[in-house]
Specification:
By secondary structure, the protein is mostly beta strands. The protein is 0% helix and 73% strand.
Amino acid sequence: IGIRRSQTDSADSDNYFITTGLRHMFSPVTQCEVTIGWDIIDNEIVGHTSNLRGALRFSTMSEFLTYNIGYSRELNSVSGVSTSPVVSQTVYINIVGRHTRQLSSNIGANYAKNNSLSGDQVDIQSFNISAGAVYTIRAWLTGSLSVSHFRQDSEVTSVTSAQDIERNLIMLQVSASWGT
């Protein structure tokens, strides 16, 4: 059960949601999770609206790899490009590998579709693919390298909608920690 309040220059929005779920362990290394619920939004511009929300996740592990796949659907009250409610649907897959005690890696991809609940103010598809590695130099010092590609396509050409975006990102990080 949750409440989220969003405010923009042109509209205030209250989002109420309730979600229930079930997780089943098929084996000690394989699990599935299903959630389902309802979103209710009170928006100053579009009024009262509601929609189904939910998710399906599947995960399995082997000695060195963990695989995750999933789907989610939810209603966002303010999407960043629109003040009207947007239905967001995402499909993802990622794989995490543990190669040694010090070295792990990951690769992942997702596809997202965002559409206005009513009308065509928002019609956006995005794709993301990423890969990375983390190396533990000492217990208190780690280094990581990640690479990602992101592409967003907007099917709406109005001035208020999102634009097409393409972004490549390479990150090199060094992290230190201390204490317990």
